[in-house]
Design a protein that fits this description.
44% of the residues are buried. The protein is built from 19 helices and eleven strands. The protein is globular and about 75 Å long. It is α+β, with helices and mostly antiparallel strands. It is 48% helix and 13% strand. The chain has a five-stranded mixed β-sheet. A two-stranded antiparallel sheet has the order 6-9. Strands 7-8 form a two-stranded antiparallel sheet. The protein binds 2-oxoadipic acid and nickel (II) ion (NI). 2-oxoadipic acid (OOG) is lined by residues 72, 74, 129, 131, 225, 266, 294, 397, 401-402, 405-406.
Length: 459
């Protein structure tokens, strides 16, 4: 009997990401339209801006651009979250970052499951923004008990998925047949269900408390609620969406448009009303909206200093606006953002000199030809063109932006104010492990690239 070798978790993730995209495209036709629009825009940008094309070639990002997408799900219990962490681990995805969305009126806290090493990200940068509902924020004890009892009855994983997770943990991986089966079984957790697990009246009660609570509690599983492609120019896509029958939210979340993109800019279009059968109905008479569309543009990962500057400028612009950004104040919000962000250096050199962003370092042809440069300082190597710095791409999310995306898809009912705040410890206890500090990951990647680059030119 021949023993099949293990398939790398990175390849399992790559296949899973593709399978998820195929499923979503079939279920939500607008997602297909969005993918086409993004693809066309990226193609145009690469043709029009050779500098961007060169930069993406240099960093290797060009190869992952078309594969790049993130999704989001919301779960209801600690045990669901903990098992999800184990499921994602089979695909080489770890929980990175902690996002508390309660200050923005959304009763969840979240993490992003993703690959953590630059080589693994290169094979598949697939990420899943994963939120845990904070049932303790439901004030009505009866309703909270009801929600808990409904959640206690469901199992969001197939028996085969659970078996394969256990097998991977016990023997250290999955072979080709098992991996294929794992992808199919894991996908079931994220599928949309046309029937609810509660009656129409119970759904109304949950929804009246918060639409998000109904979305998590009333269904068999944590349906994937969006899948987001990465564009090279979000303003163009935003402007063209209406012509493709898609209505975007009023403002783009994140930093304003810049020469040197930083962090993450995002926009979305509203969730669709979809027919649902409640338990007291034998046909699909009700409806629920959860699934929406989103696009993102990624820029440089910022250091703690850069992030502090970003947060300060964002808060200053929002304070001056005096309200959540909306259709009525969108133009003023954009103007305020541009004005305040004038303070943030908008060049690679400026951001590097002030220590605002993380970089990857590459030996240039000139540097390689010169050789024996190990003793020269980095500043001289950069100045003389022996080494080139490219911003490290931001792989994570932004809490204020995420809250804006949630809000725009949930409607006004979501503008609740919660007294209780951040509870990372409780989240990690539910997760069954700590979350990884994203800043540490960027610092490590930067250091590895610097080491490799210096080794290459010291030969
Ligand atoms: C997640 C919303 C946040 C993002 O990209 O920041 C988000 C959700 O609605 O479950 O998608
Ligand atoms: Ni998203």
């Amino acid at each position: 009997m021949t023993v099949q070798p293990f398939v790398s978790p990175d390849l399992i993730r790559q296949r899973f990401s593709k399978a998820m995209s195929d499923m979503y495209r079939e279920e939500v036709p607008l997602y297909g339209a969005l993918l086409q629009l993004v693809e066309q825009t990226n193609h145009d940008v690469l043709e029009r801006e050779p500098q961007i094309a060169a930069q993406l070639h240099n960093s290797g990002e060009i190869e992952r651009l078309d594969m790049e997408r993130h999704g989001a799900i919301r779960v209801g219990t600690a045990s669901e979250l903990a098992t999800l962490a184990r499921l994602f681990a089979v695909m080489g995805m770890q929980p990175v970052g902690y996002y508390d969305l309660t200050p923005a009126g959304v009763p969840v806290h979240s993490t992003a499951f993703r690959a953590v090493h630059e080589d693994a990200l290169q094979i598949s940068p697939f990420r899943v923004f994963t939120s845990l509902l904070r049932l303790e924020l439901i004030e009505d004890p009866e309703l909270r008990a009801f929600a808990e009892s409904v959640l206690a009855k469901r199992t969001i994983f197939t028996p085969a998925a659970l078996q394969l997770i256990e097998r991977a943990e016990t023997i250290g991986g999955l072979n080709a047949d098992e991996s294929e089966e794992f992808v199919l079984q894991a996908l079931e957790t994220f599928r949309w269900h046309h029937s609810a697990t509660v009656s129409a009246a119970q759904y109304q009660t949950l929804s009246a408390q918060h639409r998000l609570i109904a979305d998590v509690v009333a269904f068999k599983g944590p349906h994937i609620n969006h899948l987001t492609p990465r564009t090279l120019d979000i303003d163009i896509v935003q402007a063209q969406m209406p012509a493709h029958g898609i209505t975007p939210k009023a403002v783009i979340e994140g930093p304003p448009r810049r020469q040197c993109p930083i962090l993450l800019r995002q926009t979305s279009f509203k969730a669709l009303e979809e027919p649902i059968a409640f338990t007291d109905q034998n046909q699909t008479r009700g409806s629920h909206s959860a699934r929406f569309g989103e696009i993102e543009q990624r820029g440089a990962a910022l250091t703690p200093k850069g992030r502090a500057l970003y947060d300060r400028l964002l808060n200053a612009a929002r304070d001056e606006l005096g309200d959540f950004p909306n259709e009525g104040n969108a133009a003023r919000y954009n103007a305020l953002m541009t004005q305040h962000f004038g303070e943030f250096p908008d060049s690679i050199e400026g951001m590097r000199e002030q220590g605002l962003a993380y970089f990857r370092y590459f030996a240039t042809e000139k540097g390689l030809a010169a050789g024996s440069l190990a003793q020269t300082s980095l500043e001289y190597l950069l100045r003389d063109g022996h080494v080139k710095a490219e911003p490290l791409v931001y792989e994570d999310f932004l809490p204020v932006s995420a809250a804006g995306i949630f809000q725009s898809n949930l409607g006004d009912a979501a503008q609740t104010h919660y007294g209780e705040h951040s509870n990372r410890q409780a989240f990690e206890q539910a997760l069954g492990r700590t979350t990884i500090d994203e800043l540490q990951l960027y610092a490590e990647t930067q250091q590895r690239s610097l080491n490799e680059c210096l080794a290459a030119i010291s030969k």
